[in-house]
Amino acid sequence: MRIFISYRRKDALKFARSFASWLRDQGCDPWLDVENGIAPFSPLAVSVREGSFRKSALSAQLTTRMMP
Q: What's an example GO BP annotation here (predicted)?
């Protein structure tokens, strides 16, 4: 299963990479922008669509800095 990992680069990149590694160990196919060649602030919807997400899930990594 492909899993799109959404996170804030400024304070969650290290965790997102660690989580992606754990997912790989579990037999999943994690999809991180930094590993799939997406530049910051690029149109995310296009990149996700091109990532062929037929069997997919979304993991949103929330941090306290994301809250107003």
A: signal transduction
pLDDT at 5: 85
| Single-letter code of the amino acid located at 41 | F
Q: Give residue limits of the domains in the chain.
A: 2-66
Q: CA-CA distance, 7 to 60, in Å (whole number)?
A: 6
Q: Which amino acid is at 22?
A: W
Label residues 7-18 b or e (16+ Cβ within 10 Å = b). beeeebeeebbe
Burial class (CB within 10 angstroms; exposed 0-12, middle 13-18, buried 19+) of 23 = buried
What whole-number distance in Å separates Cα of residue 50 and Cα of residue 37? 12
